[in-house]
Amino acid sequence: MMRFIAGVLSISLLFSACDQQADDLNSQDNSSSDQTQKGGSNFGTQNFIWEFKGEFTADEKEMLKEWITEVGAATIETLGQYPFDVLVVFHASESKSDNEPVIFGHTDRGPQETVHFYVDPDYPLDKFLQGWTAPHEIAHLSLPFVGRHSRWFSEGYATYLSRRTMINMGYYSEAEFDSLYRSKIHQAMAYFSSTTSTHLEVADSLMENHDYGSMYWGSSSFFMTADSLLQQEHHMRFEDVVMEYQSCCRLKDKSLLEVIKSYDKIIGDTLFSNLMYRYRNLPSNEVMKGY
What we know:
By secondary structure, the protein is an alpha/beta fold. The protein has two domains: 2-24 and 146-287, no CATH class; 36-140. 54% of the residues lie in helices and 13% in strands. It contains 13 helices and five strands. The chain has helices spanning 2-19, 58-79, 125-129, 133-140, 151-168, 174-188, 199-208, 212-219, 221-234, 238-248, 256-267, 271-281, 284-287; strands at 36-43, 46-53, 86-92, 102-109, 113-119. The protein has a five-stranded mixed β-sheet with strand order 1-2-3-5-4, with helices on one face. Helix 10 packs across helix 11. The longest helix has 22 residues, at 58-79. Mean pLDDT is 89; it is low at 1-35.
């Protein structure tokens, strides 16, 4: 027990330095286009606000709205009702992909929670729905902006929850989800096998070298582990914690330390603080043992 308490105290000190830098990514998108059109529709009890930049036909606009509306409904079912409207900006991409309708996606965490999608509208609706980008980016918004130095956490979080949402869309079974994530995390183990560097240090190195995939999948192990512990010790899933978090804490928390404290308060345990201590302080090979 004393080791756990020491871990929680240490993590509080470690967080305080990192979270001071959390506001330098709260940027606004400054892209422009010849044509901007806005509209809106329901996102549960809140709203999706639609904005189109570039040339889209009326049918293409309706298809894109149907895509995000379906993802939004599955997101609410999986992660709970978000306590704010979401601005969704569709950009007509000049780039093309051989097999992906969504070229790129990202969020803006300013006064208006916003998600941007750069799309090729020539693809059919089912091809959009099969992709992970929209569930990933919309999942980001269920977590407050926690700073550049905690990107490993936010990207691992969205990577983990994107396919949890897609289970509710019918694209994965629980067994397929588990097989996919264990395989991807195991592949990332090639990078997270250090006996001296922590998980955070390895993740930072991967980002510096632009190996985002390995960082994303390796960091999703935090949430796979948390979910396993929650099932064993509390008979609940990580999504249950996220769902309650939306109503109690999403609008009040401003740092990763506050998020972790809120998660612990929801379950009445220090499970998340203890796990975070391991990811911040133990060698990465020790943290990833079991994958």
